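As a warm-up, study this chain.
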Amino acid sequence: MLFGSGDRVQIQQVLEQLGKLATDLAAVKQQVADQQHMIDQARQDATAAITSGLAEIRAVAREALGRTSDAATGHLANIGSELVAIRGVVGQLDTRLRETPATASEVKAAREEPAAAPEPQPIEQPAPEPELHVEPASEPDPDILHAAAGIAHATVEAHRDTWAFLIQVASNEEHFHIPGRVEDHEGFVSVRFSGPSLVAAITSLDHVHHTAESPVTRAIAAHIHGKITTAVQEIIDRPGRDGDGTPVRIIIDDRAAADEASDIEQ
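Now compare it with the structure written out below.
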């Protein structure tokens, strides 16, 4: 039986409704995808914030434990030295008493005579503490800073503890921005830096290298500073005409070179 004109109109209306339903379904799917993307981004941001916070807490706790251990070790060493000196003096007095025996009359006279008041001993002034040798602060190389500021983005690859040290040193700089995403691969992190953040890191590391009291802190700051400035100096020596969007890689992972002879045998 052929459809009449009324049936065709109804079929057309049904088709239009199905088309609207398909459009609405596509919009709902897009909203769900957008919300899922927002949830994933929030999860990544929270993970990065937690990782950075834990790294800072570990670094501060490790430094506090190190200072406490150094102070306790120094006091114990001083006490041990004083005990050794006291034992030496007691041993010398005992030897002298054995070598010079006193006669009975001398012992009796010593008992009858009142003991003389001990002469006042001069108060020994504590020896002045040696002055800490700290290298005079110097201004960073302006060419290095200028070249670092022109870097669009760089990737610093280092151990998690090295990253925590860098955060602790440079976080107070005006132009340093803590990256929102830190990729962690079993303790080896990869962090994206901008040009201003590199400039802030270079200046803060240089300041710590020249002013920190601890030689260990100065050594760590100098090493990281050298790695960053070496990468920037290579850009100065071999500048590229046009950037291709590839990040500048700064790898802090020194190791000994492989033995060429052993490599050939293998």
